[in-house]
TrEMBL record:
PANTHER family: FERRIC ENTEROBACTIN TRANSPORT PROTEIN FEPE, TYROSINE-PROTEIN KINASE. Residues 352-434 form the Tyrosine-protein kinase G-rich domain. Residues 159-186, 310-375 form a coiled coil. It is a multi-pass membrane protein. Pfam families: GNVR, Wzz. This is Polysaccharide chain length determinant protein (PEP-CTERM system associated). One of its GO terms (cellular component) is plasma membrane.
């Protein structure tokens, strides 16, 4: 396919007014925007999360939030509606702020504010904050207000968290101290109520029980011995008329009789009555009794034992009865004490379980109390660290200063891009106009349309008047576009709304951040 450049060049010349109008329109709009858009100054500040100046092993700070998390919390508090409105009205951040609604002011402040955060393993945590404004002083002032609020929020966050932590553990210590006092009182009441059956005196009471049982055996043996002695004394008196152990002199046979009876008593404790030695001793006792009975003195009248022996018997029997009675009373007392000890010993296991439960609860509370006291001490040390700003804190690395040059708009770039866009749109307008034109303009169009070959073609020839009228209309339209478009843009900027706000709203509608 051959490309007829001369034809297309002629077409371009014939349609050049479309190109010129489009180019002038776009270029004029771009130039107007470039010179009417207000200058934007950007001020920025850099903040750093500085680590604690006191090593953690020596005294861990109370506030231990991650640095990036802390910056995110501070950012959310900073960009609240109340803060943004206060800063904007205080510094007159926008030229027409009196005509703006609170929602528009807040949205404009958020659109013009940029906050960046960077953090990583082994890297410092940094926050950069910047603000765009039409005046350098406003840009720097807003950023400095932001920095002031950030530092205040950091101090408030650290001190408040430290104070809340101290107050919490102080309440815990007071609460656990009260519980300890209650448990002490309960243990003391239980010990007082069960003083005779406490586990710590169990060995003493068991030893006491053994001693009482031994003493009971001795007492019962003594009672039996005294009763047996009383019976022997009566038997001797009845058989001999004498009293054993009396002051009256005994005959050798009487003394031998007493010894034989004692031997008999000893043998009967180990041998049966039918044992030969026992029978022999019993026969010897019977013989001695006959001899002693014959030797007993008699009274002159009735042949009864003398009055002295009878009186002595009564005295010794009374002594024996008194001793037996005392031993019986002691026996009753010992049995009563043994019963009480048995009851207290039986109660001791249950008391042991109850006391162990109380002691376990007391030890658990004591352990919690000790931990709470330790944590309270650490919290108070952490509070002191935060009050003296020795812990992790946000510091200003680079404060905001008034910019000397605007950051945007780039007027040369806008004008140049507008000119290039005007050229491209102008050419596109010409090409589109020709693509939509289906008229016959060349001999080849006649051959293609009708299948005939013309002998000669005669182009349309305009008269000089038509040419002048055509050119005058084009010039008038060109002047209208070149002057009217900038004038219209200027009128919109001055009397309706600034172009920067219009562009910001349009960009926000399409999700573009300028």
């Amino acid at each position: 396919m051959n490309l007829d450049l001369s034809f297309w060049f002629a077409v371009f010349l014939r349609r050049i007014h479309y190109f010129i109008l489009t180019f002038v329109l776009v270029t004029a709009a771009s130039l107007a925007a470039a010179f009417l858009l207000p200058p934007v100054y950007t001020a920025s500040s850099t903040l750093l999360v500085e680590s604690s100046s006191i090593p953690g092993p020596l005294s861990a700070p109370t506030v231990q939030a991650q640095a990036l998390e802390k910056l995110q919390t501070i950012e959310k508090r900073l960009m609240t509606r109340a803060n943004l409105l206060e800063i904007a009205k205080k510094l007159r951040a926008f030229k027409d702020i009196d005509k703006m609604t609170p929602d528009e002011i807040v949205q404009a402040m958020r659109d013009n504010t940029r906050i960046g955060k960077s953090a990583g393993r082994g890297q410092a945590t940094i926050m950069t904050i910047s603000f765009d404004a039409e005046r350098p002083a406003v840009a720097a002032g807003v950023v400095n207000e932001y920095v002031t609020l950030i530092l205040q929020a950091d101090v408030e966050l650290r001190t408040r968290n430290a104070e809340d932590t101290v107050e919490f553990f102080r309440q815990q210590v007071e609460k656990l101290s009260g519980e300890l006092d209650i448990m002490k009182a309960r243990i003391l009441d239980f010990q007082n109520a069960n003083a005779d059956a406490l586990p710590n005196t169990l060995n003493f009471r068991m030893n006491q029980q053994q001693l009482l049982q031994s003493r009971l055996s001795v007492v019962e043996r003594d009672i039996a011995t005294l009763k047996d002695q009383r019976e022997r004394m009566l038997a001797i008196f009845e058989s001999t008329g004498q009293v054993t152990g009396s002051t009256i002199a005994q005959t050798p046979e009487a003394r031998q009789l007493d010894q034989a009876r004692q031997q008999l008593t000893t043998l009967l404790s180990t041998l049966s009555p039918q044992h030969p030695r026992v029978r022999q001793l019993q026969a010897q006792i019977a013989s001695l009794e006959e001899i002693v009975r014959a030797q007993m003195p008699t009274s002159g009248a009735g042949g009864q034992p003398g009055g002295t022996a009878a009186s002595m018997l009564d005295i010794q029997l009374a002594d024996l009865d008194t001793r037996i009675q005392l031993l019986e009373e002691e026996r009753v007392r010992i049995i009563d004490d043994l019963e009480k000890l048995k009851v207290s010993i039986d109660k001791t296991p249950a008391n042991q379980i109850a006391l162990d439960a109380l002691t376990r609860d007391y030890n658990n509370i004591q352990q919690q109390y000790n931990i709470a006291v330790d944590k309270l001490a650490k919290a108070e040390a952490g509070e002191e660290i935060e009050v003296r700003s020795k812990g992790e804190r946000v510091v200003v690395v680079e404060p905001a200063s008034e910019p000397t040059r605007p950051t945007r708009p780039n007027r040369v770039l806008i004008a140049g891009m507008g000119s290039v866009a005007g050229i491209a749109l102008g050419v596109a307008m010409v090409v589109l106009r020709e693509l939509l034109n289906r008229a016959v303009r060349r001999p080849t169009d006649l051959v293609r349309a009708f299948g005939i070959t013309p002998i000669v073609t005669i182009p349309y020839i305009r008269t000089p008047r038509e040419t002048r009228m055509r050119r005058a209309g084009f010039v008038a339209l060109l002047v209208l576009v070149a002057v009217g478009i900038p004038a219209m843009i200027y009128a919109v900027h001055v009397y309706y709304q600034p172009l920067d706000l219009i562009l910001q709203r349009a960009a926000a509608r399409f999700g573009i951040r300028l």
